[in-house]
């Protein structure tokens, strides 16, 4: 089984990582736009395939849906911020349902406080960065995703951290919309932070599920 997993399933992680790195280095190149869009979507799309193949549960299938919607958002946002934002909004809604269905048994007051902060500060900062009510509304879904991820039973060192990085990557996008100092640097940081977030979330959820599978076996 370990050999089969290595040769048939984990290469999807390698393919995802390779696509993400390739996109980072060519995203400002003069290559055909359609190929760049497909390459950008491939990074997280391969993570969705990894989730489907790595665990047979409905939880893994829901994770794959979350990732697939995000991959769609990655591509659509190159055509329209509104279309991409809509795909990510539905991705966050699916993620919230995933995390709410997998609550943590207990949490400390400080951990609960951080979840509340993520829920309310995320849309507030989105609003302060853009003064756009639609982006602030999106920020509420984004904050809900991060808060429920933090309070879920999945490892905080991967899934919780990944959710927080996701929030940061979106804040950087919104920061770069206006004429602000270091906006170009902020834009350059969006992709690596965002991809790291998705990678941590995907591998963190699957890691928890597979540990449980071994415990049952």
From TrEMBL:
It is found in: Membrane. Its main location: membrane. Pfam families: YhhN. One of its GO terms (molecular function) is hydrolase activity. The keyword Ubl conjugation does not apply. It is a multi-pass membrane protein. One of its GO terms (cellular component) is membrane. Keywords: Membrane, Transmembrane, Transmembrane helix. Belongs to the TMEM86 family. This is Lysoplasmalogenase. It comes from Pontixanthobacter aestiaquae.
């Amino acid at each position: 089984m370990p050999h089969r997993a290595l040769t048939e399933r984990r290469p999807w992680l390698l393919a995802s990582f390779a696509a993400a790195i390739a996109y980072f280095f060519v995203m400002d190149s003069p290559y055909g736009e359609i190929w760049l869009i497909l390459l950008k979507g491939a990074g997280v799309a391969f993570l969705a395939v990894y989730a489907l193949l790595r665990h047979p549960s409905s939880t893994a299938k829901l994770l794959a849906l979350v990732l697939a919607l995000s991959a769609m958002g990655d591509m659509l946002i190159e055509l329209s911020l509104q279309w991409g934002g809509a795909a990510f909004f539905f991705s966050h809604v699916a993620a919230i349902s995933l995390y709410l269905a997998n609550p943590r048994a207990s949490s400390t007051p400080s951990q609960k406080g951080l979840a509340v902060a993520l829920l309310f500060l995320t849309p507030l900062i989105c609003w302060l960065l853009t003064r756009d009510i639609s982006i602030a509304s999106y920020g509420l879904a984004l904050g809900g995703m991060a808060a429920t991820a933090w309070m879920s039973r999945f490892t905080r060192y991967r899934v919780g951290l990944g959710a927080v990085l996701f929030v940061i990557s979106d804040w950087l996008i919104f920061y770069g919309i206006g004429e602000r100092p270091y906006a170009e640097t902020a834009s350059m940081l969006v992709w690596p932070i965002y991809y790291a977030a998705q990678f941590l979330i995907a591998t963190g959820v699957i890691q928890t599920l597979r540990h449980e599978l071994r415990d049952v076996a």
